[in-house]
Specification:
The chain is of the alpha+beta class. The protein is about 25% helix and about 25% strand. The structure holds FE2/S2 (inorganic) cluster.
Length: about 675
């Protein structure tokens, strides 16, 4: 008796024998191979494309003859004529296995394909979204066996896809009958499965094969900015990213001032809720336009945010978060209709998933960071710092993870800085100051040239040089310290003390002139004493939070540091350490992770299982409340110096020698001492 043909799938390596004549798609399903299909094998969607290989495969112990698969059939020929099929590709639902064969499943044909993230250190996301597109063929109604169209659609989903427990809301039921008839009883459905349930919900329905795609938004709702990524739910691609200022800023710059606004003004919380919901809805429309997508095809939104933003988005008065014991209305993850959040521009049935909060002031944004950076899986002790108006700080390893949130204020985002601005073309993002001449050079967003490179003026003509963004101010302050223009207490020296006329008097203090654009009608960009103070406050809060977690864990050092945040990827580790934003560590062990909270939102958007995983992880993260820890204040005061009043920075000292300058308490340009070490 001849044996059934052997089929070997790559890259999975799954193999097995199937009866001759079995379609590749069927064989893949039987062997548990990840091969996509939307049309259920009808030869319409082309999601099932495979690439067979022929010849000798000693590694697999097979020889594949040209006749191992059935010849092209009419369906494939038609598809090739109309859409074009890549050389060497077959439709898995049409090609039948006739002999031993090796079949490659290309990444775009895998349901659970991996999406590689931009940050080099980041792990890829495995696609397994909560919403999938499926096509079914529904039986026509029969007067003699009466049943509703929806009931027959359900039966079709069960027969053709093995999917049971399906429900649909009224907007879908309204579209059902015309869709079925127009599609000649073939319809596509967007099928959503909430986390932790066996149930499915139809979010939308289209006649025939829906080719418009399905999309989701991953939103990092910050106190200062709202950042959104428009993501293709079939392949995880980010089609557009956009950020807008959080309009709640007009009610208060930071979280506590917004809580106070709600406390002092009856209905203030409602106003803030309305403002942020409108902004998100507008942002959704804008980002959809940018990505060339109909906003009605956005079927899911995932949010990460701090607890005050969380409550205000949900329409819950945040007053309890303004006082100990900082009780959250709920810390659980939530699944809601987007309509309940007034996100009316999206698909009418769009679903939102809100990551769980950790506790108190440690919110869903910290959960997002934990999901993206996985400190709970780290072998070594890692400190993850997500820098924003409120810093989320996580410290731990696979044994234990602690988390806190620290009110850094918006200085790191360029706010409250005299020449500060958002990271946008024209903003200074990198700074270097020559320690001998005290002359600066810088780079602005939008050009790769340094300001002393030939062609810089031409390259920046369109944008101008407009201000300093967060990473720029961090570098500027650190460079000033390294060049001896700034003493450890944070005082800027006078022209006489520093030997440069760029240190100009401004009242009782001094400012360092970074760029004078007045000749070209641009601004004079300086770093003032007030800017230094704002940065000192912000960095002290950050460092104190990290130290507090280190105390709790009983350690004096960490093995590595991950700098995250909307501009985390742009912060130079050396400058962050000179400033004393982060504890001392070998510079090679300080890495940037980009917007980790936002990445966490993207992971949860693209992978349903990640939602369950982060809910479980969050239960094991221990929260430390900075607001009531007396040691936080002590750490905060000690961290005011640059880099620090008492903590040693031996790793930093091995690469950077900081000038031992002191400009006196008055800072008035008189009797400053100036010494240089080494
Ligand atoms: Fe749709 Fe093959 S499964 S074309």
């Amino acid at each position: 008796m001849t044996q059934d043909p052997l089929v070997i799938f790559t890259p999975s390596g799954k193999r097995g024998r199937v009866p001759a004549g079995t379609p590749v798609l069927t064989a893949a399903r039987q062997l548990g191979v990840d091969l996509d299909s939307v049309c259920g094998g009808r030869g319409i969607c082309s999601k099932c494309q495979v690439a067979p290989s022929f010849g000798d495969f000693p590694k697999h112990g097979v020889t594949v003859a040209e006749t191992a698969l059935s010849p092209w059939n009419e369906v494939e020929a038609r598809y090739d004529r109309v859409r074009g099929l890549k050389q060497g590709r077959r439709l898995g639902c049409q090609a039948q296995i006739r002999g031993d064969v090796v079949i490659d499943v290309p990444p775009e044909s895998q349901v659970h394909r991996q999406v590689v993230r931009k940050a080099a250190s980041a792990k890829p996301i495995t696609m397994d979204p909560a919403t999938r597109l499926l096509m079914v063929e529904v039986e026509e109604p029969d007067m003699h066996e009466p049943s509703g169209d929806f009931e027959r659609l359900r039966a079709a989903l069960k027969d053709q896809w093995g999917i049971e427990a399906v429900t649909a809301g009224l907007p879908v039921l309204r579209k059902l009958q015309p869709a079925l008839r127009k599609g000649e009883w073939k319809v596509s459905v967007a099928l959503y499965q909430p986390v932790h349930t066996e149930e499915f919900r139809i979010l939308d329905i289209w006649s025939g094969l829906h080719e418009g795609g399905l999309f989701g938004l991953a939103i990092d709702l910050g106190s200062t900015t709202i950042a959104a990524h428009l993501t293709d739910l079939t392949d995880g691609r980010v089609l557009a990213s956009a950020g807008v200022m959080n309009p709640q800023i007009r009610f208060g710059e930071d979280l506590m001032s917004r809580v106070s606004y709600a406390m002092m003004n009856p209905g203030g919380d409602v106003e803030m809720t309305r403002a942020v919901r409108e902004a998100i809805d507008r942002l959704a429309v804008e980002i959809a336009a940018e990505g060339g997508v109909d906003p009605g095809l956005i079927v899911e939104v995932v949010f990460v945010m701090n607890p005050v933003m969380h409550h205000l988005l949900l329409g819950i008065d945040p007053v309890e978060l303004g006082q100990a014991p900082f009780a959250l209305a709920t810390s659980s993850a939530m699944t809601l209709d987007a309509r309940d959040l007034d996100l009316t521009s999206l698909n009418p049935q769009a679903q939102t998933y809100i990551l769980p909060c950790i506790a108190g002031h440690v919110g869903a944004d910290a959960a997002g960071v934990a999901l993206a950076e996985e400190p709970d899986k780290s072998e070594d002790l890692v400190l993850v710092v997500d820098v924003g108006t409120n810093a989320e700080i996580l410290l731990g390893n696979r044994e234990r993870v602690l988390a806190c949130s620290s009110p850094t204020g918006p200085a790191f985002e360029g706010a409250q800085i005299s020449s500060g601005q958002r990271a946008a073309p024209g903003a200074i993002e990198r700074v270097e100051i020559d320690p001998a001449t005290k002359e600066p050079r810088f780079r602005v967003i939008g050009s790769d040239l340094w300001s002393d490179d030939p062609g810089f003026a031409e390259a920046t003509k369109a944008t101008g040089i407009t201000g300093i963004c967060g990473s720029g101010i961090i570098e500027a302050v650190a460079e000033m310290r390294m060049a001896g223009l700034l003493d450890p207490s944070g005082l800027i020296g006078s022209a006489e003390q520093t030997g440069t006329a760029r240190c100009e008097p401004t009242g009782r203090t001094h400012a360092y002139l970074l760029h004078d654009g007045t000749a070209e009608g641009g601004p004079r960009i300086t770093v003032t004493q007030g800017d230094i103070r704002a940065i000192q406050l912000a960095k002290s809060a950050l460092y104190a939070g990290a130290r507090l977690l280190m105390d709790q864990l009983g350690v004096d050092r960490v093995d590595r540091v991950v700098l995250a945040g909307a501009f985390g990827a742009h912060i130079s580790p050396k400058h962050a350490m000179v400033l004393g934003m982060i504890p001392d560590a070998p510079l090679a062990k300080v890495t940037s992770a980009g917007n980790a909270a936002g990445h966490g939102a993207r992971i949860a958007l693209c992978n349903r299982a990640a939602r369950a995983r982060i809910e479980e992880t969050v239960r094991r993260i221990h929260k430390v409340e900075t607001a009531v820890e007396p040691r936080f204040q002590e750490h905060f005061v000690a961290a005011n110096a640059i880099p620090h009043a008492s903590d040693p920075f031996p790793d930093l000292a091995s690469v950077v020698t900081l000038p031992d300058v002191h400009f006196g308490a008055s800072g008035g340009g008189g009797e400053g001492r100036r010494r240089r070490r080494g």
